[in-house]
Each structure stands twice: as C-alpha cells, then as structure tokens.
C-alpha cells in the first residue's frame, strides 16, 4: 500500500536516529567533491550546504537563495546557484520537475525512491513510497526485457484542503500541457 512519507515539514525526517550522521555524511561527500574539483571549501559554500540540508522542501535555486539571504545577505545568487550545481554533481541534491516550468531540488539521500502528488491549486506536494508501484514497474520491465535506469511518477490533482474548499476553481496553468489537457477533459 502506498504510504505518504512527507507533506514537506522542515527537518521532520532529518532528526531521526541517523539524521545527524546522514547530514555529516552528506557534508563529507560535498567537501570531498569540491576538493576533487580543485575548489576551496568556503564559509559561503558551507552555509549554503547547511541551509539546503536543513530543509525537506523541494527548493528552486531562487527559494534556496532567499533562505540563504536570511542567514547572510552578502551571499550572491550566482554563488548559491553554483553551489547548488556542485551539490547536484556530488549527488547530494537531485533535480525534480513538477510540470510548472521550474526546476526544484531535493536531498538525494533523504528518502528511498519515492513519488510525488502535486496539488494543481496550491502547489502542495506529498511524497509517498509504494512497493506495489515498484513491483508493477519491475514486472512490466521484465515482460519487455527492459532495464529501467530511472523513472518519475508525478500525480497532479487536488489536496484535501483545496478539494474541500468550495467553490473550487482549479489552476491548470501550472501543469504541463499534456497533463492540463487530460485534467480539462476530466472536468467536462
């Protein structure tokens, strides 16, 4: 059965039994990566890394920049963007796209492979795990002798709060065109 694992609350999962060691491991990975790349460890990069690791949100580079600015307004947007790119290259962050044209990033190590449900009204995102979906994927791949390298499942709809609001006017402009078309057909 699919189980929700997050409704995006800060630090909920990173404070568990291995939360501190996970963050330390991610920091070590990052520092090793920048050293291999011939770059220096700086206080600015460390702060950006700490801010990123301190949230479980799906952050755009602009979101991360705003959070970093709250801690140190002298850090520029280019520094944040480049550090986020380094974190992605190091495998600490991974890109996620929810069909609204924005690239967001999440911690690569925070969860095993998971999926997203995205509210088309308010943008709220729920992450969930499903062994059943993984089993179906593996079964289909085996049937076609296909070796999947990665996959992504995004379910667009209405969260409980937006669904319960009346009258509901659904914002389909934030959804990819092909998803928008199928949602529009469903509303007819």
UniProtKB/TrEMBL annotation:
Essential cofactor(s): Mn(2+); Fe(2+); Zn(2+)
Binding residue positions for Zn(2+): 119, 122, 159, 162
Record GO terms (molecular function): DNA-binding transcription factor activity; transcription cis-regulatory region binding; zinc ion binding
Family annotation (InterPro entries): FUR, Fur_C, WH-like_DNA-bd_sf, WH_DNA-bd_sf
Residues spanning the membrane: none
Binding site for Fe cation: 113, 134, 151
Ranges for region Disordered: 1-22
GO biological process, one term: negative regulation of DNA-templated transcription
Biased composition range(s): Polar residues: 1-21
Keywords from the named record: Cytoplasm, DNA-binding, Iron, Metal-binding, Repressor, Transcription, Transcription regulation, Zinc
Annotated cofactor note: Binds 1 Mn(2+) or Fe(2+) ion per subunit. Binds 1 zinc ion per subunit.
UniProt superkingdom: Bacteria
First and last residue of the signal peptide: none
CC annotations in GO: cytosol
DNA repair found in the keyword field: no
Protein location: Cytoplasm
Pfam family, one: FUR
Family (UniProt): Belongs to the Fur family.
Complex and partners: Homodimer.
Listed name of the protein: Ferric uptake regulation protein
UniProt organism field: Pyrinomonas methylaliphatogenes
């Amino acid at each position: 059965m699919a189980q929700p694992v997050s409704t995006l609350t800060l630090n909920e999962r990173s404070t568990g039994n291995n939360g501190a060691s996970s963050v330390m491991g991610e920091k070590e990975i990052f520092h090793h990566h920048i050293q291999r790349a011939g770059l220096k460890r700086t206080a600015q990069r460390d702060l950006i890394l700490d801010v990123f690791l301190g949230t479980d949100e799906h952050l755009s580079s602009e979101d991360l920049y705003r959070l970093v600015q709250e801690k140190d307004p002298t850090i520029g947007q280019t520094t944040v963007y480049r550090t986020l790119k380094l974190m992605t290259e190091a495998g600490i962050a991974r890109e996620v796209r929810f069909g609204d044209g924005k690239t967001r990033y999440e911690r690569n190590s925070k969860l095993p492979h998971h999926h997203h449900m995205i509210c088309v009204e308010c943008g709220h995102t729920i992450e969930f795990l499903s062994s059943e979906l993984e089993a179906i994927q593996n079964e289909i791949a085996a049937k076609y002798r296909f070796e999947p390298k990665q996959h992504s499942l995004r379910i667009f709809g209405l969260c409980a709060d937006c669904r319960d609001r009346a009258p509901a006017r659904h914002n389909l402009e934030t959804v990819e065109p092909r998803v928008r078309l199928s949602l529009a057909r469903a509303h007819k």
